[in-house]
Amino acid sequence: MVLFWAAATTVQAAGGGTGMGPSAIEVAPGAGALVLAVRTGPLPAGAELVLETSGGRRIGSVSPFGATAATSSAVQTHLVPVPAGTLPEGRIEIRAKLVLHGSERAATAHEFLGAAIIGH
Length: 120
Fold this sequence. Notes:
The protein has 120 residues and is mostly beta strands. It has strands at residues 10-12, 18-20, 23-27, 34-40, 48-53, 58-62, 76-82, 90-100, 103-106, 112-117. A hairpin with a 4-residue loop joins strand 5 (48-53) and strand 6 (58-62).
């Protein structure tokens, strides 16, 4: 069961491009290991979408093997396991950045569409 989708808001990214603001999730008190359903648009071939808290703690990443902007559907859902204790309780902001060929930038509004906790 999906608890909710949290769509991120578009903001001005470093370097002047359009990027994603944080996407928020609500972590219940006493929550154990979680699974995040991360919605993305088509990603460039070889790209990795890295998910972090607003404080910079890495949560996980999405790297669609073989799926590219030219060959994949417009919206994809990827499951990201999050070990117990990785996230504090309460409202958590998730930021996404795209890593490609050794460089990184904020994910765009078309690359990172939001995240949701899959129910336990």
